[in-house]
Amino acid sequence: MASTGTTSIEQAMSRGVEFLLARQSQDGLWREYETLAGEASDWPSGFIGAQLNDAGVRGTAIDRVAEALLRRQHRDGGWGYHHEVPSDADSTAWGLTFLAGTGLDRNAMERAGRCLKQFQNPRTGGVSTYADPSPIRRYLHAGPRFDVRGWCASHLEVTATAGRAFALVPNGRFRREAELAWQYVEPRRAPDGGWYSYWWVDRHYPTSQAVALADVLGRREPVTRAAAWASSEQLRDGGWGATGFARSAFATALALTVLLRAGVPLDDPVRPGLHQLIALQQPDGGWPGQASMRIPPPAVAEPESYRAWRLDGLGTGVIVHDQHRLFTTAACVSLLGLAAGG
Hints:
This protein has one domain (6-341): Glycosyltransferase (Alpha/alpha barrel), CATH 1.50.10. A three-stranded mixed sheet has the order 3-5-4, with no helix packed on it. The chain has a two-stranded antiparallel ribbon with strand order 1-2. By secondary structure, the chain is mainly alpha-helical. 49% of the residues lie in helices and 4% in strands. The chain has helices at residues 6-22, 42-54, 60-72, 89-102, 106-117, 133-139, 156-168, 175-185, 204-216, 220-232, 249-261, 270-280, 326-341, and strands at 32-35, 38-40, 293-295, 310-311, 318-320. It contains 13 helices and five strands.
């Protein structure tokens, strides 16, 4: 059995960081998720950069992705799936989270925060992936009657991610928007303490995002309840499974992140989970790509009711995995950084 002491945790994290840095493109970006729109770049780069920030990674690679994202920031202050796709709230939130973690370019953060605010419903606090349907309709070459109500509704995990991004902007510049986001997220918690998602198949990602927002706002009770949900989902061997995966590195990393944010010590149930996560690491330092994102048809507001999902296809109504293993590996690296610090 592999050790899960601090040294082994740090070694696994270091190998994961090397895996990610080796796959950073010459332009400073990471690319992931093959879809009909092509591979994403700006969105995963913000996410991966933010995970590396959380793990305490600094240096040239971080500077390169920062320069790339600053160069590709849209006129409206946001970012999209890639540079040719209109700005969306999730990509903008991850770009802003990354910049806030680096402390770079307050002006770019201000622009991104103002852009992100345009996606938030000022009454409910909910954040839509696409608030104005016109830009995404134009990108899709669709007419004004093309139904995109699903993509333009408020989404739990996007709201939580945006709320955390708002909260991380220095000097409390968007603190009100962060609190408003929490007003949307909190009452949508399930009775078991976890949350559900629009864009993700399983509950680990939305729950981890909601917990991150609660944590940065100092709301401890929801974090504790989410940890109870995560513990209830743990398998006997210490890991976590996900839809289509008996053992999922992505689910395990996110569930462990929830537990550590709740202050659960590096003992049961955390230590067996860390052991399983380290055991899943592949020889090249990455983890199996198991981050299951779904793309509902634009008109579908309730993806749980949709039954015609296709696996790793193009278009909509599909479930796609991170084929380059970058999203999963970044989540694992972030978790191991948190565990090493703990």
